[in-house]
Every structure is written in C-alpha cells, then in structure tokens.
Amino acid sequence: MSFQLQLTQLDGYCRVNFPAMACVCEILIDTADMALALQLGEQARDETRRIEQKFSRYRGDNLIARINTANGEPVTVDEETAGLIDFAAELWDASEGRFDITSGLLRRVWTFDGSDKLPTQKDIDHLLPRIGWEKVSWQRPQLRMPAGMEIDLGGIGKEYAVDKVFALLQEEFSGALLVNFGGDLRAYGPRSDGSKWQVGVEKVSADQPVEMLAMSQGALTTSGDSQRYLLRDGIRYSHILDPRSGWPVSNAPHAVTVVAPTCVQAGMLSTLALMMGAGAEAFLDEQGIQYWSVR
Amino acid sequence: MQLKDKKLGQRLALATTALLGTQAPEQALAGDGDWKVDSALLYYAEDDDRVKAVEPVISLTREFEDESALNLRIVYDSLTGSSPNGAAIANVAQTFTSASAAARLEGADEEEQEEYAGRGSYTINPGDVPLDPSFEDSRTVLSAGWTQPWGDDYTLSVGGAYSSEEDFTSMSGNVAIARDLNNNNTTLSLGVNLEFDTIEPNGGIPQALGSLSEHNTDGSDDTKQVVDMMFGVTQVINRRWITQLNFGLSQSSGYQNDPYKILTVVDNGNLITDPNDSERYLYVFENRPEDRQKLSLYWQNKFAIGSNDVIDIGYRYMTDDWDVNSHTLDLTYHWQPLEHFYLEPHYRYYTQTAADFYEPFLNAGSEVDISGTDVTALVNEASSDPRLAAFSANTFGVKAGFPLRQDEEISVRLEYYQQQDDNSTKAVGAGSDLDGMSQFTELKASWIQVGYSFRW
C-alpha cells in the first residue's frame, strides 16, 4: 500500500505530506493542534487530487481527454476549466505565442533524456500545423479545436493547485501556512512567534549551496531542470520548447526561481523567462521582481 | 529578445485574479538575501555666495532572517564659500588676517602656498558682512548600527560613528533598548549616546577672548565629551493615528568654542585701532562656557488619511543652560494620488532665544579693558555666532517621490530656508561706525536633494 498522508508535529507547527501531482506535496500549518492540522491536510489533499484528476492529460476519463479526442467537434466546458483556458489564452497573447497550451504534441518528437537524439526538421514540420492557439476557436464556454490538436494544462496546473489549496486553507485557518508542491510554493505569515517561513531556493546542481529565503507572504517557483536536456555537438538543448518553431529555446538559463504574489504569477514568469533564452534576465529585470537565475 | 508588450506583469496579475477568483496580494514579501540601498545627493547653497555644500550619502541596510538588521552609512560633505567671521558690519572698510589661512601658509607646500596666498588677509567693504573667504572643509562620516530582537518583546540596538574633518574628529557609540507592550501597540525605548570629539584648529587653540592680532594660543588641540540620553514612548492610538513622545537630556563638556570666530570691540560704536597692530582694528576671539546641558521634548503624530495620504505633525521644545530655548513646528503632508507618484509639501517654523553670552560686538570699558597694549576681557564668555542669537526661521519645501516598485524609489526634494532677526539692538553711538548697521545677518539658503533607493 502506497503512502496516502503523513502528519508530523514539529517545533510549534505541523506538517502534512501527501503524494500528488508527481511529487510529494507539503503543507505547513502554524498550529500545535494536530487534529486541526490533519483536518486541513485532508482537505488540501482532496482538493489537490480533484484538480489533478480533472486536468491531467494522462487520464482517459476527464474533460481534457474529451477535448483532445473531440475530433473537430465543439466541447462545452465548465466554469473552472473555462477560467483556466481564458487565462492560457490571455498569456498566449501577452507572451506573443510563447506560452501555448497546444504545444504538448512536440513531446512526441522531443525526448529530453540527456542523450544526443535530436528529432529531424521533418519530424517537427510534420507536427507544427497541429500546434498554435490561433488555430483554436474559443468562445467561452465552447472550445472547438481542429482534429489532431491537443491541449495540455500541465504548464499551469501545479501552480494553480497551489493557489487553490492555499485559498481553501485560508478560508479555514487564519494563521501562518505554507503550501509547497515540489518547490512551487506559496506562503502566508509571519508565524505566531514572529518568524518567517524559511524556504530553500534550489540551485539545481547539488554542489551549489541552497540559499535560504525568509518568506512571510508570497509565492516562489523554479523552472528548469538540469536533468532534462539533449546534448549534441557541444550544443545543449534545453527542454523549453518554443511552440512557434518547434525547437528548444537556445541559451536559456539552467533554472530560474521567481518570487511573486501568487504561485500562478511566479510560475508563469519563471516559465516565460526561460522562453526568453539569452534574454531571460533582462525580461525578469523588466518585470521588477525578485529572482535567481542559474546559468 | 524582448516582448513588445511591456505590461505583461499587469496583464498576468489581472488574469491571475480572474482565474483564482480572489484579489491576489499586490506584493510578495520575501527575502533577506539582499541589501536595501538608500542613496542621495544633496546640494546646499546659501544666498550671497556664502557656504555651498555638496553631500553624497549612501546607506546600506541588510535584514536577516531572525529580524536582526545591519546598517552601514557613509556621508561625505564638501563645503566651500565664505563664512561670517563674527565681526560686526561697519560703515568703514575692515581688513582681517585669516587665522586659518595664515596657519595653512606656514609650512605649506608650493601648491598650497599658491592656493592660500590670496586669502591670508582680506578686506571687507563698508556695510558688507565680514565673511572669511577661506572657508573650505570636507567631512566624512562613517557609521554602523546593529539591531537585534531579544526575547519576545525587546529589541537591542548598538551603533558607532566616526566623523573626520581637517581639524576635527568625532567618535561616538550608542546603545538602546526598546520594549513592546500591549500587543505591540506601545513601544518604550531608552537610549544612550556617548561622543568624544577632538578639535585641532589651524593655528592652534586661540586664547579665550584674546586679541586676533596677538593670536596667543592655549595648546594645539582640545576635546569635548557629550552624553545624550533619550527616553521615548510610541503609541498606536488607532488604525489611523500613531503618536510618539521623546524626552532627551544632553550633557556636553569640554571645548565648545568656534576657534575661528571673533568679535569686534568698539568704543561707543566706533571701531578701535588694535593697540598691537596699527593697521588693523581690534577683534577678540570668542569664548563659550565649557559645559552645556540641554533638555528636549519631541512630540510627533502621524495620521493616515484616505488610503494613501499621511499627515505628519511634529513639535519640539528644547531648553539649555545657555538660555537658548527653541520651539520647532514641523508639518508634512504625504499626498499620493497615484501608485507611482507622491508629493510631500513641507513647512517648518523654528524660533529660538539668544544665549546669555551672545553679543553682536563688545564694548570697550564695560566689557573689554584696554590698557596700553593689554587687551583684557571683563566678561567670561562672549560669542557673536548667529546660531546663538535670537531668530526665527521658516522652511518651505516639497518632495516629489516616484515609487517604482517595492523598495525602489526615486525622489527629489527642494527646500527654502529664511531667517528673521529677533534680537534686540545693542546700543551704539549716533553717527558711529556701527550706527545704522545690521547686527544680525539673516540667512537664506536653499537646497535640493535627489534620492534613489533600491534593492541590491
């Protein structure tokens, strides 16, 4: 039997862990009341699993699967899904097409396993006609997508879940708390003893020291992964794909960590920064936010 | 490669609000991984080509995760221009030998000889304020402070400062403790500052009330110690009103004189030829008491108006055993019509009474005895320093601030200062050299300060 939920009492606060969203989710609650922590932890887990099941592209029984197999027919979506699609459409426009929920198909030809196996331009050209939000007709609440195209809300799902769980817990609990899904996190504080949550900013490679950041309010996300790349002829191909060309973005930082008011904002900014390639830091500077970039 | 749409952050924030159905907080509060830098450049100018100063300031603050904080500050002042030497305005020309310039010339290298040659003596036209044109100084101040929470309710701070000018050095150290009460609605604080100054005037320490031409000295340097104590209460009255009351005591002992300031000696309003130098009039160096005790009371109130505006009202009363009593009223309105713009009009009224030994000049006979070539003061202390005179002053200012984002701001401040003479006129003979001449020169000054704060 796999582990479902773990409650730990720590120095003045409680921690709840549960597996979801392909990582171990962690909730820190600034209370010594274990019963309360358990109740909040279960709510957090239920909400996380609900979002995961609803928006995962790996399941055959959800709305995403229906959209992706509609074969050109219109699909009417619920309020929550419509909200996510509206958000994705707005970001697609604001990012000049870099953030695109129809780009998931590119993973069929790009496998970032550290090897030197690059797809051919022909493979990519074959996919490009089926990629691009501009080809989709979205009239809330109705989505009509040409046959063969797919949408994937994975680029926003985890951050969305963090913010949703955070809001849910805040309705029930007025004290300090922290929601951390595999490094994408949102905090509220300071704690009742006046201290802030201590958050380690990942530096990707093991030999770099973790920088500790004291957070009272806000969110932090990291995009990038040193394990997911291709290396050929001395050129490193990051796993950040530009949906407009079908090729990886060149000269992107290994990782970008961003602080923003909400996890959704932080996640979009760290993702978009990587898509700016060599211009990642200039882009982040322009946003006027706190960030760390690892090259 | 950049996005053409520079408003991505705003669009993202709006889209996020729509998505999450809640108003997202505007700012994330995170970080102790960097320094907060406050930098400013001040340009100060007095009217009539008197003192001009340029002062860059850099202050670095770093807050640590346990809420302790380190502050480092560097100030550099560069002062040039002409400063009143203390002599009275007369309707005849007066020629002075500059004590400081003359001393600089002694043993100066060739370059300095050239620089100060013209300033060894200077002549003031009838009716003009006697200004010493050799005024030139620079000052560097380094200070450091450390604040540390102690237990749940206490905060400890320690700090030190070092200040250096060509003829003056100052070292100080301070300790303060603050205690939070009533759910942090009340804060009590107690602080002590110790300061130790050394002055080494050009040309040595002039003999108190000795004549300028003789320039007898009492050694080359002297010292001063200052102990300041402060007790304060800060009280949050309600959501929109915070008030602070500070009570201060200061004890200063040692050399308090301005070693370059002189006083004119007159006979019924007429300048007297120096018995030791037939080409000069008679002037004596000033002298002040060796001790000064000050007591001050400061009351400040901040009122929040609307969502972003703040009224700041401060009143300060100071009294000392030199008989200087002062009142200061300070008003600032913080008007913020836009997220990235605010305006702060500022007005200050200041008034003080004169020190009991303030004299615009000294009278021969009653205050200075002249017997042959001997010049002997009959008073223990006397100074014509306008800062010890009775005057009131108005300051009008405005600051424009442009907060760019959290902890980043550009600001510009303009201030104008004007004094009014509140002294009673000291009697002079009709038709004498000082008759009809102003006995106090009202100072006018303006300054501009440009500031930039950011995270580094």
Q: What is the fourth-level CATH superfamily of the largest domain in chain A?
A: ApbE-like domains
Spans of chain A of at least 5 consecutive residues whose pLDDT stays below 50 are none
Shape of chain B: elongated
**Discrete helix count of chain B:** 3
Care to describe what's here?
The complex is a heterodimer of chains A (295) and B (456). Chain A has 295 residues and is α+β, with helices and mostly antiparallel strands. Chain A has 3 domains: 6-57 and 158-187, no CATH class; 62-152, ApbE-like superfamily (T-fold, Orthogonal Bundle), CATH 1.10.3980; 196-295, ApbE-like domains (T-fold). In chain A, the strands form 4 sheets. In chain A, strands 1, 2, 3, 7, 8, 9, 10, 15 and 16 form a 9-stranded antiparallel β-sheet that branches. A 3-stranded antiparallel β-sheet of chain A has the order 4-6-5, with no helix packed on it. In chain A, strands 11-12 form a two-stranded antiparallel sheet. Chain A has helices spanning 34-55, 63-68, 79-94, 121-127, 154-172, 263-275, 280-287; strands spanning 6-9, 14-20, 23-29, 75-76, 137-139, 142-144, 177-181, 184-188, 197-201, 211-223, 229-232, 235-238, 241-242, 247-248, 255-260, 291-294. The model of chain A has no long low-confidence stretch (mean pLDDT 88). With 456 residues, chain B is mainly β. Chain B is built from 3 helices and 27 strands. Chain B has a 16-stranded antiparallel barrel. In chain B, strands 13, 14, 17 and 22 form a 4-stranded mixed β-sheet that branches. In chain B, α2 (99-105) runs antiparallel to α3 (110-117). Chain B is elongated. The A-B interface holds A 83-84, 86-87, 90-91, 94-96, 160, 163-164, 167, 187, 193-196, 198-199, 211-220, 259-262, 264-266, 268-269, 272, 276-279, 282-283, 286-290 and B 1-9, 11-13, 15-16, 18-22, 24-33, 65-67, 149, 152, 404-405, 408, 455. β10 (211-223) of chain A pairs antiparallel with β1 (29-30) of chain B.
